[in-house]
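Shapes recur. One chain:

:::
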Amino acid sequence: MVEANKDSNTSLDGYDEEQIRLMEERCILVDTEDKNIGSDTKKNCHMITKERDGILHRAFSVFLFDLEGRLLLQQRADEKITFPNYFTNTCCSHPLSFPAEIEEDGQIGVKKAAQRKLEHELGIPKEQVPLENFKYLTRIHYKSASDEKWIEHEMDYILIIKAKVDLNVNPNEVKSVRYVNQDELKQLFVDAGFYQTEDISKQKQQKDLLLTPWFQLIYKNFLTKWWNQLDTIHSVQQDDTIHHML
C-alpha cells in the first residue's frame, strides 16, 4: 500500500471549520483500473498543485428515488470546499480507507459508505436504506476542477435505490433538497443552460443555477435509460465497465 506525498501549498484558511475537519478523512487511492493502491487525506486528493491535479480516488454517487419514481436532488451547502451551492444527485461522497468501506466483494464497502453519508448529509436512518436495496450500476472515471485550488478526480460508483425516507438535512452539507420527475429534471438542465436557449429571460437564471459536472455526465449518458427501468432496476445487468470520461 502506497501513501501519496504530502503537499501543504493549498491552505484551508478561511473555510468552514467542520469542512476542514472532514478534509482529514482518508480516501482510497486507485489506479485507472480501480485497483486499491493506498490512501491519502481528502485534502491531498482534491488539491491542485504544480505537480498534479488531484489524486485519483474512489467515490460514489447515489440516486435515490421515492415510491412515486421521483429523484431526490440536493443543493450542496455554501460551506462545501468543492462545488459549493451546486445542485447534484441525492448524495455524492467517498468510501473511506478503513476495513468496512475498503471491502470490494459486491461493492459492499461503497454501499456501506453510501448508507453512512445518506445519514450524515440528509439524516436518512440506515434502516430506511438497507444495504441489500442498493443497486450498483457502473463506474465512471472523471476529472473536473471546482476552482483554481480544488479538483475532483474520481472513480465514481453509481448506486440506485428506491425507498420511502425521512429527511433531517444537515445544513453544513446540504443547502436545499427537492424531488423531481423526469420532465422537471430536464427543465432544471434547460434552466442551467445545459440545452441552448435564446430565451433572454433565462440568462440570469442560467448564470445562477449550477449543476455538478459528474451529475451532468451521468444525466447525459445514462440516467434516462436507468430511470425508465426503475421498477425493474434490480434485474438490470451489472456493468463492470469503467467509463473513462476525462
User: Anything to note?
Assistant: The mean pLDDT is 91. The first strand starts at residue 2 and ends at 3. DSSP finds seven helices and eleven strands in the chain.
